[in-house]
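# step 3/5: fold
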Amino acid sequence: FCNRALDVDRLLEQLDHDQGLLSEVLQTFLSESRNRVGEFLQDVQQGDFVAAEQKSNALRGMAGNIRAEGVRVLAEMAEQACRRSHSDRASSLGEEMLQELWRVEQAAALV
């Protein structure tokens, strides 16, 4: 199935329909992404926009790889906010990414 948070069908196809690998990939993504968003928010709070941009870039790539389009789009927007040193916007996007990761987790639970 596919919803806005996660395109499970495309991801499964990408993983040769290996359900075990799918579960492992999703668990790893969720764990690493939450940590990365936490680090991103800390970097933004400290005014380290270069590090925050690097974190959001990594998140964008990770989300794209597992077909989590909502997270990918938010991470891309966060990158742009960091390039412009827009602290409030970057923080807001970080919070939105956490919410979208929760949606991904809910979608993954249905697999």
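# step 4/5: annotate
The longest helix spans residues 19-45.
# step 5/5: archive (pending)
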